[in-house]
Amino acid sequence: MEEVDPRRRAPNKRTAHLQRASTPPRERESPEPSSVDQNIVFSVPIDPSMIEAIEVNARALAGELDRVIGNFESKMAEIATHAHDSVAIHTDAVKACCDALDASRSNMLALITTVDELSEDMAGVESLALQIKALKEALDVIEQLPGLK
């Protein structure tokens, strides 16, 4: 079957109005459409008030969509700000915890050092305690001598 140029095909009922609307007037086969074609093309009346109502509704819908998207954008910015603040607070808390742990560790090392020094000092105290005990026993022996009373 031989291919026919779509502009040269005979129009059917469904595409006749499309062909007339899409082809420039000089390419149409007949200068004026037949009365059957006019009934097909103009069978649906166009109501200007309906088109105006659609446009008003479309503008209202576009405005509402713009408002919703703007609200969404501001909420997302607010969420991002809160998330950033939360991370900053968490970072500060971790730093403060690390600083507190470092200080605690330093204090614990100082305490251990002090306890070790105290333990060394206590070794001398034990020696002194033994010497004091020996002196006390010697003093008790001297006091029990008969000529000292």
UniProtKB/TrEMBL annotation:
InterPro entries: BORCS6 (IPR019314), BORCS6_C (IPR046465)
The protein's name in its UniProt record: BLOC-1-related complex subunit 6 C-terminal helix domain-containing protein
GO annotation, biological process: lysosome localization
Matching PANTHER family: BLOC-1 RELATED COMPLEX SUBUNIT 6
Superkingdom: Eukaryota
One GO cellular component term noted in the UniProt record for this chain: BORC complex
Lineage: Eukaryota, Fungi, Fungi incertae sedis, Chytridiomycota, Chytridiomycota incertae sedis
Residue ranges annotated for the BLOC-1-related complex subunit 6 C-terminal helix domain, each copy included: 44-143
Disordered: annotated segments: 1-37
